Amino acid sequence: MVKRHGEPDPKASSSVQGDSYPHRVGNHDERGKQSTDATDAEASDRYSGHTSTKSLVGSVLDDPIEHGRRYHGLGRDGYFLPNDEQEQTRLNILHQMYLLLLDGELTLAPLPAAPERILDIGTGTGEWAIGMAELYPFADVTGTDISAIQPDAVPSNVFFEVDDAEGEWTFSATYDLIHIRNLAGAFKDWPAIYRECYRHLKPGGYLEVIDTEHIQMAASSPNSYITIFVSALREAADKAGRPWGTEHLKRSMFEAAGFRDIVSVTKKVPVGPWPTDPIRKTIGKMWLIGLMEAAEGGSLRLLTRELDWKAEDVLDLCEKTKAALKERTMRMETPMKFVVARKPLSDTTGATTPTTMED
């Protein structure tokens, strides 16, 4: 059996080991209140269906260094974002920003009071998966990523696996919720990703996909370095065959995969601390930090590989773009789009659903 990150330790607490992960979830009313009467045997049965046969561990040992940044080493052709400590810090800041943006909530999906299985694709540092595991202590929460950068001290009901979502999905379980956040530019074939999500959801289960309208942000600052930067990234991503936009959030894509009850919510996020409202001011600060930290990490590999830019030219544009982002008089906002789609209770697509062990 392949060892997984976050494998339960029989000597560890059933919640969080030590105080590594303080409670970070806001108001959830009755949704997060689950019975604590489940036996160890019941919990063991519930966890038994989570594993994927494509799990890998330790690929971080092969992660290459390019232009001073570390990238994943799974063998896939060059995901554009790094996975080093600088990038991990950025991801953790953005997770906290999302919590503020959603008033402490982790998802907009109307989950049942006691979901059994939750899957986070592209989990990054695993903060969202950890939060869901804390909120639903009797749910099996699995986070997958192409980089093994998740912590070891986690709730006993969260599991991390190194896996590429572009490959064949071999999970033996079906899920109440599949969550995908900030993966624009990651996949060549979004319709194929949605078909796999559909196949691995329980009837009535939800898919939630979240991404950022960077193009609209650039449109609000025409003739600026922001526009030049975003245009270059989009050109490079298109050339790489992994579009860096939000076309994958179109309703028609979800409908084509079989989803119904599709709800789209757009929230405008301030760029910088210009709002007078204290919460939005904090959100703006966090988002500005996230954008500035992503400038170098998100462009170096893409522009040098796909457009043959010199690294020093990329870094020069990054500095000019960051200076433009900090210009408070611009009062920019970035639209963030949340799409929640439901798999019908009665499946008419003919998709083959994995056999899930009974709880």
Continuous helix count: 9
Secondary structure: helix percent? 25-40%
Structural class assignment: alpha/beta
Number of strands: 9
Which strand-content bin applies to the residues?
15-25%
Radius of gyration: 20 Å
Mean pLDDT: 82
Shape: globular
Question: What's the helix-strand series?
Answer: HEEHEHEEEHEHHHEHHE
How many strands, what sense, and barrel or not for the largest sheet? Answer: 7 strands, mixed
Terminal residue distance: 21 Å
- Low-confidence region ranges: 1-59
Strand order of the largest sheet: 5-4-3-6-7-9-8
Descriptors for this entry?
9 helices; alpha/beta; 359 residues; two-stranded antiparallel sheet; 7-stranded mixed β-sheet
Q: Could you explain the architecture of this structure?
A:
With 359 residues, the chain is of the alpha/beta class. 33% of the residues lie in helices and 17% in strands. The chain is built from nine helices and nine strands. It has helices spanning 40-47, 85-101, 127-135, 190-199, 214-219, 225-240, 251-257, 278-306, 311-325; strands spanning 65-66, 69-70, 117-121, 140-145, 158-162, 175-181, 201-212, 260-270, 333-342. It has a seven-stranded mixed sheet. The chain has a two-stranded antiparallel ribbon with strand order 1-2. β1 and β2 form a beta hairpin. α4 crosses α7 and α8 runs antiparallel to α9. The relative contact order is 0.16. Mean pLDDT is 82; it is low at 1-59.
